[in-house]
Amino acid sequence: MEDRVTPESKTPGNGRAQWRSLEELSGSSEYREHAETEFPDYFAEALDLPPVAENAALSRRSFLGVMGASLALTGLAGCQRPLAKILPYSKLPEDLLPGVPQSYATVMQFRGMGEGILVTSNEGRPTKIEGNPDHPSSLGATHSYAQASILQLYDPDRSQFPTEGNASRTWEEWNAWLTPKLTTLRADGGRGLAFLSLPTASPTLRAKRAEVMAAFPNARWVDYEPLNRDNAIEGSRLAYGRPFRQQLALDQAEVIVSLDSDFLFVEPNSVRHARDYGRRRRVASTQDSMNRLYVVETVFSITGSMADHRLRLAPTQVAEVARALAATLTGQHSMYLGGETWSAGTLSDRAQVFVATLARDLAEHRGRSVVLAGGSQPPEVHALAMALNHALGNVGPVVRYTLEPYPAQQREGIAGLAKAMDTGQVNFLVVLGGNPAYDAPADIDFTARMRKVPDVACLSFYRDETAEKANWHLPETHFLETWGDAEAWDGTRSIQQPLIAPMYQGKSELEVLSMFLGRPLDSHALLQEAYGREWGVFSGSRWDRALNDGVLPGTAYAEITATPDFSSVTAAWSRRTPPASGGIEALFRPDYSVWDGRFANNSWMQELPDPMTKIVWDNAALLSSKTAESLGVKDGDLVSVSVANRDLEIAACIVPGLADGAVVLPLGYGRKRVGRVGDGVGFNTYALRTTTGMDIAPASVKAGAGHYTLVRTQDHQAIEGRPLVREGTLEEYRKDPEFAREMNEAPPPLTLYTNKEYDFSKPPQWGMAIDLNTCIGCNACTIACQSENNIPTVGKEQVKKNREMHWIRIDRYYVGDVEEAEAVHQPIPCMHCENAPCENVCPVNATNHSADGLNQMVYNRCIGTRYCNNNCPYKVRRFNFLAWRKHEPEVIKMAMNPDVTVRMRGVMEKCTYCVQRINRKRIEAKIAQRDIQDGEIRTACQQVCPTEAIIFGDLLDSESRVAKLKAEERSYTLLEELNTQPRTFFLARLRNPNSEMEKA
Amino acid sequence: MSTATVPPEPREMVPDDPRRRLTLVQGRHSFADITRMVCAPVEEPATRGWWVGFGIASMCLGLFVAMVVYLVLVGIGIWGLNSPQGWGFDITNFVWWVGIGHAGTLISAILYLFRQKWRTAINRFAEAMTIFAVICALMFPTIHVGRIWMLWMALPIPNWEAIWPQFRSPLLWDVFAVGTYFTVSVIFWYMGLIPDLATLRDRAKSKVRWLVYGILAMGWRGSARHWANYEKAYLILAGISTPLVLSVHSIVSFDFAVSVIPGWHTTIFPPYFVAGAIFSGFAMVMTLAIVARRAFRLTDVITIDHLDNMNKIMLATGMMVGYAYSMEFFISWYSGNKYEMFTFVNRAFGPYAWAYWIMITCNVLVPQIFWFRKNRRSIPIMFVASILINVGMWFERFVIIMSLSRDFLPSSWGYYKPTWVEICTLIGSLGLFFTLFFLFLRFLPMVAMAEVKNVLPQADPHGHGEGGVPPGEPA
User: Which class in CATH covers the domain with range A746-751+759-991?
Assistant: First the structure.
């Protein structure tokens, strides 16, 4: 029995030593005794005891993760206020001050690309994810999925140990099982061995995969992800003969055309694109210009909500618009598309006007425009978009191409694999990271095929649908627990470094593959080996530099210049079957909350409202009001959707502005094996998705299956003519810059009270600007706030009762008529009113004001009369109606930010302008004896916003961004006639319509 | 044979011509009769009716206790409250109960100052009703807070950190106002009880009764000095209580009026609420009086004329309340404030329109029947009307609080539905009230004997009662 364990002795060449030394604490036997009862599993192995429960022992390195938790968790877990022992470091690591968080750079792989992030770590456990400002895909922001992934790390339903069938096993036992199998396979060159993995952006992993394929030449390797870029890659092959990847510089585009491309959220590299789009959207004075966005789409997406002109069409009709656009540009604007004639096809009048105006606009902005095709559009649309970009001269300034490193057609790949499994050609299937039993195309029936394979091993994060059918299930590490690397969209490489030792017995794909090669090493060794090979000689300083910066400079892909093959594009179009008229088309789409289903067990994501429908804890079949009416369907009715002879009963949701003749089916719900949060939530639309209709398919919808309660965070969708989101056109703004302020009558701000308590004339006085012109409504701020401020989730039933706890919410209002609706977004955090209505009415003074302008909430003093929220005209306060955290598993506590109090039942809470961050910077500045610089303090919502729509700072500092924004004519405060004098203000939204669109 | 002139018809309780004065107590009772009639329910064994009523009330009280325990253990979430609707049944019940209490003080104090002698038949149990109503009312702010165990922080208790409650908050004013109201009402009521407690003490047949009533009667001997002090104290307390009738509910109305919410933020609330309080209070007194007078055979003391007068007051206050409703509507339109206009249209035609129209029917239409003398003197009609009026007044506060559901930002609009816990809590509070009331009926004289005797014709030293006919002799 060892008294102390040190991984240094086990693994060579540690990286940073700081986060490993916490294990020293294990010395105290009293602590061990305590911790053992708390976490019998974690320590059993370390102390060489037999496993206490099914959850067998973990690797010794798990000490590290647990140490951080132990500070709060030792003691009596059941009581209201547990006795917590704080154990100091016996050997304090350099640069580490207990209580001061540290920040490490790593990279998150998502959607086949790496997104650089900085992770805040508190005493060795990561608690918050931010963007890495130096990373090209991020520039300091993240999307909501990155925020949510921190909770995945601490998911109590994570797979913790290997299993064979239903029995728990150890890695040694797996290796013992695998080794003889490998010997047999090696003899045959790997015949019968098949790998099914998620596509990866990690060059090291790709190299390792190649190594495995070299070792087993007769094996097959298939990449499959349900939401893939097959269409774009195939389109590129059509246009250029080679698979290209588009690199966009959207800030150089003045006209952006989106053909069903939700480039602000769903398409890859969306965070970067949103930032660039926002740059050209921002208007500081009447001299500035704005870009113009045309969107042709089926669903009402976030990108569609930002459109200056939007055309809603069924999915196949979108392709017809592309064709008509080509026809108009070649016909009337003498654009060269290979000299072929393009016919316009039949379009509605409105669409024709749209196309004509759009064509002219594009023609006038050659070299400063871009045509984007969405991932769900067929390859010919992508090819045509590429051709148009070339013809318009956009390639170079706005669009550049790099070679697509991962060009395999995934749909064909998995179909081929399924066939092989069927015909007995596969006798050992290794699933690495995917969940094909759930999300493979329904006509493949992967589950049935799996039964035909004698041995199936599944490496996955949860013991999911695929894992439970496999012989062997191996737990996968989270990206925050393991070493790796990833390439950004443009190829810039980052090294993925872990922030915590694997909490359970997980291993990464890299490590598992090394087992197949007979040299099982841990990911750290594998990475250093790989980079040693790449650099010739491993350089410690180069390695440290890469880890510190989060990016490896000069690793972006090389640009390629090429000319498209117009004839090939035309040929593809001529092969295209004309769309069936009438009937309904189904469009499969990722979900804004759970993506393809991987976040289904993430309560933050389940409770994060869909940005457009505001639905939580569910998905629904989206229909336009006209389609619904023709089918006799009302909002919330259960309908039966049929695609390719498969039926699904699903709730219907009526969305203003959705295209007629279409039903949109978000993917990722209806899971059966993911965990306590996600099981049975929503409807499994994968059941309707076949290989011939992965994105678009003909469908039929039948009403009359009953009713279902869809829960939304926002029950009222219309703005009722109230001047809350103030909009104008760019022309109106130029004519009258103060148009926003004139939209509301307000008396001069007088008050009976002379507020001698607070002298608001001394800096700093905090304020926040929210630019409605650039807010795309992506919800990243909402979930970042949840992560930073330990905001609980409440579940579907409680959200139905309007009790969701998000401190910042995004209100989405539909404007215009129901069919051709437009949408506006308005983030509402606490306004921090100087003359706060909430402060006046609290009987116990639990809410008061600070000298620097923050409306403060004192949780200890709050008795919970709720008058403050009643009196808040913005309704930004949240009450803990029940003990939301009562049944929360202990491990979730590790995800919490120790700088923010966790509120108990009966207490009111609200946005604090991230006062913990303000205080931290104030202390730092004071110690360093300097002033706080503008931009040093960034609230959580500000930091993650992809478009930088939220700016926080000192209003009295005339050089600060927020003060300059306050001085802009577009700025206004909400409900100013109530004389609340809010510190949070808005900048009016501008649309940039094409005046010719109205004329025609 | 009498030589006095027969006074002209008709006879009224409050006539201009004193010769037309109606006898306040019918049936030509003597002092002894009064004592016997009023003390009978206290001294004789409880009737079966009392046991049944007390039993049901106690069960409801038990329900209340159970609901409160459940609430404290689990949290406010077991109610239907949410954001935006932070208050619902809880504050509706609070304001409703406080409002009910006002009638008692008005009858006890204001009518005393106005020398309305007909008040003597009803003032005792009206005042008791006030106290019990205030007890029920105080239950609700206590239990509606998220952390009841921290409620002491709302009290101005001196402490080392010099942390005081926030004096600009209307909720804190409520603490002072309703607290004062309760204290003064209890003192007033108790002090008025002393001569009657002494009567009970003197008539006590058992040692226990004699001891208990004796202690409570504080040594009353009925001497002239005692009576002189009593009258002075009574007058002073009536003087203190009178402004409370107006101030307490005004302060309670500030809970709403001081906020910024459209539909709440209006200066009409203080007089509107006070009128409404008196309105609902009289309705409750009416309901109780009708039952009590029949059950305890006090129809000669609490006569039909008393009820007639109370109905007139209800009609008057009902008209005030109706006027206030229409004024609110007018001002919301006249203000031009779109949020105000929306709120009032929403009240009448939005999701809570059903509550609004119940309110209008019960508060504006129902009292109109009291224009007719026949209706004012019909027991079944006034019984039903009084209950409907109380229902209507409950809905009035409910409708006001439901203004929260649709305020400034449409994104935060939400619907509130009470849960079974809240409904049971309301029923339970009725249980609390009636338990206390039944106990009062059983152990304390429900009519102010001393004061009623004071208004008998034979009590008038100048012999002005009944045209000078001495009692016990034919007219």
Answer: alpha beta
Which member of A843, A864, A871 has the closest CB to residue B261? A871
Q: What is the mean pLDDT of residues A110-118?
A: 92
Please return the burial class of B474, using the count of CB atoms within 10 Å of its CB with bins 0-12, 13-18 and 19+. Answer: exposed
Residue A642 has a pLDDT of 95
Please indicate whether, in this complex, the C-beta atoms of B171 and A841 are within 8 angstroms of each other. yes
pLDDT band for position B20 (50/70/90)? Answer: low
* Closest residue, chain B, to A878 (C-alpha): B83
Provide the strand spans (E) within A863-967: 878-879, 908-909, 950-954
Å between A864 CA and nearest CA of chain B = 4
Domain boundaries, chain B: 26-150+266-459
Identify the CATH homologous superfamily for domain A230-403: Dimethylsulfoxide Reductase, domain 2 (3.40.228.10)
How many Cβ atoms are within 10 Å of A95's Cβ, its own excluded? 9
| Bond prior to B10 in cis (omega within 30° of 0) | yes
User: Regarding beta strands A766-771 and A950-954, do their DSSP bridges make them parallel or antiparallel, or are they unpaired?
Assistant: antiparallel
Q: Does A877 contact B83 at a Cβ distance shorter than 8 Å?
A: yes
Q: Point out the residue among B151, B261, B414 whose CB comes nearest to the CB of A863.
A: B151
B86 touches chain A (CB under 8 A): yes
**How many Cβ pairs closer than 8 A exist between chain A and B?**
164
Residues 395-414, chain B: which have Cβ within 8 Å of A?
A: 404, 406-414
DSSP codes joined into one string, A585-604: EEEEE-BTTTBTTTTTT-HH
- Whether the Cβ atoms of residue B385 and residue B370 lie closer than 8 Å to each other: yes
CB-CB neighbors (< 8 A) of B168 in chain A: 840-841
**A710/chain B closest Cα distance in angstroms:** 15
B261: nearest CB among A828, A870, A906:
A870
Nearest CA in chain B to A838: B259
List pLDDT tens digits, range A622-663: 999 999 999 999 999 999 999 999 999 999 999 999 999 999
- Interface confidence, given as ipTM, is 0.91
pLDDT digits 0-9 by tens, B185-236 = 999 999 999 999 999 999 999 999 999 999 999 999 989 999 999 999 999 9
Q: How far apart are CA A703 and CA A661, in angstroms?
A: 15
Please give the pLDDT value at position A81. Answer: 66
Whether the Cβ atoms of residue B246 and residue B113 lie closer than 8 Å to each other: no
Taking the domains of chain A in order of start, what are their residue ranges? 230-403, 581-712, 746-751+759-991
Query: H or E element: which one contains A944?
Result: helix A940-944
Q: Which of B169, B172, B413 has the highest number of chain A CBs within 10 A, making it the mutation to test binding with A?
A: B169
Q: For residue B35, what are its two tokens? A: 């004592």
Nearest residue, CB atoms, B146 vs list A724, A841, A905: A905
pTM strictly above 0.95: no
What is the C-alpha separation between A728 and A737, in angstroms, rounded?
Answer: 10
In 3D space, the residue among B263, B347, B91, B256 whose CA is nearest the CA of residue A837 turns out to be B256
Residue B1, pLDDT > 90, answer no
Which residues 6+ apart lie within 8 Å of A128 measured at CB? A119, A120, A150, A787, A788, A897, A940
- pLDDT bracket for residue B29 (50, 70, 90): confident
Task: Give the minimum alpha-carbon distance from B242 to chain A in angstroms, rounded to a whole number.
Answer: 27
Measure CB to CB from residue B260 to each of A813, A881, A978 and give the nearest one: A978
Beta carbons within 10 angstroms of residue A540's beta carbon: 10
Q: How far apart, in whole angstroms, are the C-alpha atoms of residue B10 and residue B8?
A: 6
Which chain B residue lies closest to A845 (C-alpha atoms)?
B166
What is the CATH topology of the domain spanning A581-712? Barwin-like endoglucanases (2.40.40)
Chain A residue at shortest CA distance from B143: A865
* pLDDT at residue A579 in the model: 73
